[in-house]
Amino acid sequence: MTVLSRRIMLAAGIAAGISPSLPARADGCAPVLAPLKWAPRTRRVIERLIATHGDTAPGYDPARRPYAVFDWDNTCIAGDCEESLLHYTANHFAFAMPAETFARATARDVPAHTFSGPFRTVDGQNIRFRDLHADLCADYALLSARSMPPAPTDPVLLSLRSKLVFAYDAINATCHGDIACRWIIRLLAGHDAGGLAALARASNTWHLARGMGQETWITPATRAGRAGIVARPVQTGLRLTPEIADLQSALRQAGIDVYVCSASLEDVVAVFATDPDYGYGLPRQNIMGVRMDWPGGRLGLDAAPHWPVTYRAGKVRAIRQTLSGPRGYGPLLVCGDSDGDYAMLSEFPDTRLGLLVNRLSSGPIGAIASRAAAQLSVPQPRFVLQGRDENTGEWRPSEQSIPMGSRLPALVAHS
User: Fold this and answer.
1) Which UniProt keywords apply (predicted)?
2) Which uninterrupted H or E stretch holds 68?
């Protein structure tokens, strides 16, 4: 059995049926979570939540089913499935749009400004977006005009991929989050639903088989172009999280509905979240993410109407539009990992518990982590932490996490 097969089998049920189908529970007993690599106290708090609000509780009302909302990237899995898909698509030149559409997609909504600070050339020069865009278009046009796929060492391919990840990182850091969310998705334009799902599965398989870590993508000296030579760190690897698969299954068995609300393209997340082979097996209609139009059955460049960008406050708007508004009450449990989840973790008065995958972050999500750390001895905390080793992508039986490149666990970010 390959390493990848073992990982998928682990998440798909710990071979014996932990998830997505738990063993039958005793009558009148709430489901319990497999210990796996849970922080023991965090697991106990969540089990108590399920027992108190699930269908074995005296006050449970099946007409007002409780529900939980999960972020996807770096919460339900280790890694980001959409950024990983960008890396896979760039590495394999698996785009599905002509050069003219690529030029429109990569220019759309991005202001004509100059990148500076950490987003300079390797020799320290500022970069105008119009120069970076010109290089992207030139590389893409050359590659798309060829009849054969490029070799992995092709300088034009290496140039395109380095400047794509540089552009995405720079836009993500310097523009409104909605712009970055749409920008990375538009790179998938032209795929039909079946082709996009196949591409996402191929990317998942490729990244699940790779080690967790970082590598640097740099522009070849022969392809400096107008913007110059750039370099960006790229995260490698994805990991399934059997503890989350088990939790989601336990919630559903207890009559608590499970939803996902992600800032990635909904259709890409759904490949991961709904396929039982990955261990999650959630209903497709319970997956919320960024939505786009599909003219002629192919992914387009325009946003789907009447739907928010599911990022930060947009996640709250999506939950209110589809869940808390129609139902009249908010989520019981919210699970996340980053500033993008801060709003949905904290905005709903009905939420009894927030589960935070501890990535040792600062900022707004760091404030929640600090609050959770201060509540470690509180019997019914508002927030709980779950540790992870970023070097392996696996959870730790502790609230403390180990950052990438380190061996030392920590509870909160160092100031």
Assistant:
1) Amino-acid biosynthesis, Hydrolase, Magnesium, Metal-binding, Serine biosynthesis, Signal
2) strand 67-70
pLDDT, one tens digit per residue, over 271-309 is: 999 999 999 999 999 999 999 999 999 999 999 999 999
Torsion of CA 41, 45, 46, 47, to 10 degrees: 100
- 258: Cα within 13 Å, side-chain hemisphere: 25
Rounded to whole angstroms, the Cα distance separating 380 from 383 reads 9
Sign (positive/negative) of CA torsion 205, 206, 212, 214? negative
51 phi and psi angles, rounded to 5 deg: -65, -35
The structural domains of the chain, ordered by start, are: 3-78+240-395 (3.40.50.1000), 81-236 (1.20.1440.320)
Within 338-413, where are the H helices?
A: 342-346, 363-374
Is the CB of residue 261 less than 8 Å from the CB of residue 75? Answer: no
Q: What's the chain's Rg over C-alpha atoms?
A: 22
User: What's the rounded Cα separation, in Å, for the pair 69 and 345?
Assistant: 9
Strand partners, 233: 216
Q: Position of tokens 């089990």? A: 47
